[in-house]
Each structure stands twice: as structure tokens, then as C-alpha cells.
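call fold(seq) -> C-alpha cells
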Amino acid sequence: MTRNCELRIAQPMFDDLTAHLFPGDGDEHGAVIQAGLLETPDGPVLTARTLVLAKEGEDWVPGNRGYRMMLARFVAGQARRCRDEKLVYLAVHNHGGRESVAFSAVDLESHERGFPALLDLVEGLPVGSLVFARDAVAGDIWFPDGARLKVDQMVVVGPRRRVLTPAADRRRTMAGARYDRQVRLFGANGQTILAGSRVAIVGLGGVGSLLAELLGRLGVGSFVLVDPDRVQPSNLPRLVDATDWDAMTWMVADGRPQWIRRLGAALATRKIDLAARVIRRANGKAHIERHFSSMEERAVVEDLKTCDYIFMAADGHRARRLFNALVHQFLIPGVQLGTRIQPDPVSGAIVNVHTAARLVTPAGGCLLCNQAVSPTRLREESVPRSMLVAQRYVDGDDASAPSVITLNALSASQAANDFLFYMTGLTAPDAFQGTIQARPLDRRVRLVEPRSDPDCPDCGPEGRRGRGDHAPIPLID
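ret:
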């Protein structure tokens, strides 16, 4: 039985490809996409890494059996590169039309004739073909064991999400009275998209808790929740729906015997369970998967592969490092969120407050390039705390950073709106794609343009971008 497969591609590559395939001459043109392959619980996913355009009259010529073809030497050269780079070879061409497309009989015959030899050449990797119309795509992927996949959707990851399928879906979408007011903004189809979307919230503290409420109320259909902590009394002002029962405040109060305080801490509600409760009160149909652990676990990464969007609301720089790698390696967009309250070290007076919603996408905004991952903090978080104290890297009694729910709400609402507009296609094509910093003390907003380093190991052309499973993931054994 032929299974379905998703293909992810970053907007700049998609724009280059469509400009090549549809230059306005009404003719057919060719190219090759070299893609990563990742296995997920929902099935295989292809991640476009490199685009090679076939040159007219040199690589792309009149065909012997069909209308046009790519020359054998060009095909063999690209296939050998895929073999060496552990990537999937995808031949690309276009047909006419706009909203539907399919392989011709000649196309399918060429697959039967040519793919077995290509499979031998790439040595254990799949090969395939894509055919495009203006607003549609179809794909046929062959595996060495005889299995075949069809590409049932291409997800274009850019300022706004775009999905191409072999044929336009003409089914009428219904939203119902529950979401009537928000459907007036983005339509019943937008509500259907949200119901079918899958998001991850990493860190269910002050910002993550608010995101759970906001996304649950929007009608997002599936969640992956990640946090290793339980509710504490100091969390209660900032966690949505948290109560004294969740924190076991009477058991962990000062003056209680140590064994009672330890028991109370162990019985306190896990933050992932509190967030799940919040989501289900907003949307009883939501599917929720929970990980009572840090992000740096293999099972967490496997679940994140299937997400449409990742909200990074954890404080740690190890988590930021891993999140940045996953965005680029698996082509999953996301946002890193934070709040900083800076007191004067002498007087204690607050001198600066800012909140940040930093977009991180395969097309820009890399955390490494923008110095949002500290090598020093990475090193500190990678060794036991007792060793850090002994080496005086940290104080033994350092206090938690200040945190206020109203400040957390600034970045949480910005991130939720960015996600909403991205998924439903409302984001303007030229929308700002960097970091938005709110500075509430002086009621200003600062826009920070993202930087990009061509030698970056994550977003650079020779880095991990689009490599799928055939590249090591940092911090994961």
C-alpha cells in the first residue's frame, strides 16, 4: 500500500524553484531537490535542503520518449551527491494548470524505467520525483525495499504557512457557534487549520502557562507539553488556574518538618498536568502529549518532529541550543520567548524591563547567529550544580529572577498572534521577521533585525539545515 508523505520547504527555496519552473513562457522546466528524510510517529517527512536548477539546453533538453528530460550525466551527478550527503534525490518538473496536478503516463513510465538504476546509485536511500502546477504538487517516492510514498502535501515555511496538495480541497468547512467571533477574522477554513495543527510548548512556567490558555482558546487541536517541574507556592501568581492545592502550600510551608515538606513537594501538581487541565477546559477535544522531563530527551525530540510550530518558553540555554537545531534540521518554525527584569546591583531599583518574542525560522532568525545562546551558560548548565558552586561560577544561594504575569503576557500574546497569523495565512508577505522587544517602563517597542552567519553550523549553507535524521542532534545521545 502506498503511504502519504509530507515535504517541507523554506520560502526562499520555494520562491527560487517556482520562478524557475514558471518564468512566463508556458513551457516545462526541470530541477533537482536534495532533501533530508526523517521518520516520525506519523510517517516519513522530507525536508528540502538544496535546490539545483537544470540549465536549459545543457541539463534540460528535448526528450527521447517524453516532451523534455534531464540529461543522464546531470542526473547521475546529483544522485551521487545525494548518496554522499545522505540525502533524498527528487527530480522536479512542471505541468500546466493551477490547482491540480498529476504525473502523466509518460512520467510514470520513466519512473519505472529509471528509478531502479537510481536506487542502485544512491546506495540505500530513496529517490523520487515531484511535478508542480502553479498551486499544486504531487510526488512519487521509491524506497530500496519496494515501498512507495506519495507526497500528499508540501508545507512552505515562510512568513506565513502555505500548503500545496495534488488537488484543491473543495469540501466546505464549518466552525460552529463556539468559534463564531474569531472565524469572523480568519474564516471557517482558518479554524479548521487550527483544529488540525500541532504545537509544542517547551517550558510551562509563567509564559508557557499563558500560551496553553491562549492556544487552547484558539482551538488548536494537538499539543506536546514539555517541563520537568512541579508547581511551587512562588509560581501561583503567574500560572493560569494554579491553586494552593496544586502547590501543596500547607505542606511545604516554612516551619514544617523536612519530611512533610519533601512529601508536599513530591505531591505538587506537575506543570504539564496543570497546562493540560487549562487546555482541556478551553477545548475538550484537544489531543495532549506530556513529557515530564527536560527537552533534551530522545522521546521529546521524536514528538517535536511532528509539530507545526514550537514555542520555546524554557529559560535554559541548553534548551535554546537544541530548539535552534531542530528548527533548521527539521524545518519547523518557532519562537523563543523571554522576559528580563534588571535591577541596579547597588540600590535594587529596577533599571530595565524588556520582553522578547524572537522568531526562529529556517529562513532566518538563528539563535546562534544572534548571540541568544551563551557558550558560558551552556557550559554551566552541562555540569552538576555542586561543581559550579565549588568553582564559584554561581552563588550557593542565588535567587530566582523576578517574574510578573503581566510582563509574561506581553511576549505570550505576541507569540500566539504570530502563530495564528502564520497558520491561517494572514501574515503580510513583507512582515517583520525578527525579534520584537517590548520595553514597558518607557512604553516603547524595539524591532531587532536578525543576523545570519554563512559559517553557522545550524542555518549556514553547509550546516544542518534540512538534513533530517542523517545529522547528529546536539545534546542528544
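Confidence is low (pLDDT under 50) at residues 391-399.
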